[in-house]
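About this split. The held-out portion is used to measure sequence recovery: a designer receives only the structure tokens and must propose an amino acid at every position. Recovery is the fraction of positions where the proposal matches the reference. Here is one held-out target exactly as it appears in the evaluation file.
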């Protein structure tokens, strides 16, 4: 596969992944949602973060369960970023960047 096709494939995949996540925000941006819906939506960042972390936090093999230390290390700055910004987008982006840095520089 040529480099040009690979780059366009990556760009296309990024757009297809990005659009379904951003379009709902654009539609709801100018709509006044009821208080109960806003309260429910306020729990989503914590639920998503918890689901992502808990799924990968423990590693089991050969009858032994242990912590996945790379996830534990990435979790700490991501959690602090979530508490500080209270923004789902910033939290997810911070978590992805934290995990990327750990995988590049700390091959655990």
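Reference sequence for scoring:
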């Amino acid at each position: 596969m040529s480099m040009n096709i690979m780059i366009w494939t990556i760009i296309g995949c990024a757009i297809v992944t990005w659009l379904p996540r951003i379009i709902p925000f654009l539609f709801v941006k100018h709509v006044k949602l009821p208080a109960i819906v806003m309260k429910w939506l306020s729990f989503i960042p914590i639920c998503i973060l918890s689901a992502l972390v808990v799924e990968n936090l423990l590693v089991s093999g050969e009858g032994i369960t242990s912590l996945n230390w790379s996830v534990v290390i990435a979790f700490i700055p991501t959690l602090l970023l979530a508490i500080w910004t209270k923004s789902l987008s910033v939290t997810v982006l911070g978590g992805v960047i934290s995990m990327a840095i750990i995988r590049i520089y700390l091959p655990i």
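Annotator remark: The chain has two domains: 1-31, 33-108.
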